[in-house]
Amino acid sequence: NVDTFVSFDGYVVREDPTNNVPDTIFAKLGMQLHRRKQHPIGILKNAIYEYFDANYPNKFDTFDDLCPIVSVKQNFDDVLVPADHVSRSFNDTYYIDSQTVLRCHTSAHQAEILRGGHTHFLVTGDVYRRDSIDSTHYPVFHQMEGVRVFSPEDWEASGVDGTDYAAQDLKKCLEGLARHLFGAVEMRWIDTYFPFTNPSYELEIYFQDKWLEVLGCGVTEQEILKRSGKLDNVAWAFGLGLERLSMVLFDIPDIRLFWSTDERFTSQFSQGQLGVKFKPFSKYPPCYKDMSFWISDSFTENNLCEVVRGVAGDLVEEVSLIDNFTNKKGMTSQCYRIAYRSMERSLTDEEINDLQVDFFFPLASERPGAEQV
Ligand code: PHE
User: Fold this and answer.
1) From atom 4 of ligand 1, which residue's Cα is the shortest distance away?
2) CA 177, CA 42: separation in Å to the nearest integer?
3) Which end is more exposed in the chain, N or C (fewer Cβ atoms within 10 Å of the end residue's Cβ)?
4) Following CA atoms 250, 252, 256, 259 in sequence, which dihedral angle do they give, to the nearest 10 degrees?
5) Would you give the DSSP letter of residue 153?
6) Ligand 1: which of 102, 124, 196 to mutate, most ligand atoms within 8 Å of CB?
7) Which GO terms describe its biological process (predicted)?
8) Cβ(197) to ligand 1 under 6 A?
9) What residues have CB less than 8 Å from 354, skipping those under 6 apart?
10) By alpha-carbon position, which residue is closest to atom 9 of ligand 1?
């Protein structure tokens, strides 16, 4: 079949005009860092499992091998994401075709697992988002989702209604989890909005002089429970970012390191050892390049970042807008600074100049000096 170009886990991906998944991203499917016992992400997953095991023995069912290719219905409709929500856009989400995406959150599995009759569960997996580039953002990362369903007898004796009861239980559970992982750490709750929970909160922890958002959570929208046949119940849900937490716990300074196969990184972690501080083997010097161009209305920073990653891969550390100028004719030019830095070696200016030629001549055959064919 000529239009079949790649397959994953029995799922055959066909060429489709809406496909915006570059090969470098597709190559991450199946890596499953969260299932590696010696990897910081796997170590953290197991430490969270431990907390739930200790506090709710044999209660939570765990899922960590669900396919990251999901339907638009699973990723968005089933969790009540409005039709016009930005997260549905091609700018924010990787589409395989118009009805199929790389899940942008583990919430994509909530509804089906609830329909399957589970009332306490944790779902861990790789999630995919188009985004800007800096030391805490990478287009593939890992989340753990937790859901707990209550029955009327759980809250009836408490004197508060089901929603308040679930909200209090949720905060208590997650504060306990944060203490289990961090010991003493400064945290704060922020009110926020998610389509699938109400009320909704974010938990932030203080790290490297900044408040870092580590999880989103809330009381599950009644409509989600209703659709799974749970008319009298109340539930909470949370989704936490495993990289963010690991960076804090293990002192990992850059999110790209999670993907490093350099032994100087991988050998520093072992099973069950949470919070061993990572010793940087060296901070190699950065190489900065500024690039300015006129932009059209359809320009987005996420698209630029995808192009930059396509050219530079994991050598790019940060892409930041440093100048924005609109002339009298209404044309806008922007200047971006690209910071290149390898985690593993020193880069040379020449090598980055050579690499950058790809921005202007994506095909080697079009480069100045290339042999004409
Ligand atoms: N899915 C949300 C996110 O990725 C996190 C979340 C999960 C929030 C469950 C509330 C409840 O940002």
Assistant:
1) 105
2) 16
3) C
4) -30
5) H
6) 196
7) phenylalanyl-tRNA aminoacylation
8) yes
9) none
10) 238
CA of 216 to the centre of ligand 1 (A): 5
Q: What is the dihedral of CA 128, 130, 135, 141, to 10 degrees?
A: 0
Tokens representing 71 are 């339907």
E strands, 77-226, in order? 95-97, 100-102, 120-128, 140-150, 187-194, 197-207, 210-220
95-118 per-position pLDDT tens digit: 999 999 999 999 999 999 999 999
CA 75 to ligand 1 center in whole angstroms: 11
* Strand extents, DSSP E, 177-286: 187-194, 197-207, 210-220, 234-241
Per-residue pLDDT tens digits for 8-32: 877 877 788 899 999 999 999 999 9
What's the ipTM? Answer: 0.98
Question: Ligand 1 centre and the CA of 93: distance in Å?
Answer: 15
Amino acid in position 182: F
Find the length of the chain. 373
**CA atoms within a 13 Å half-sphere pointing along the CA-CB vector of 14:** 7
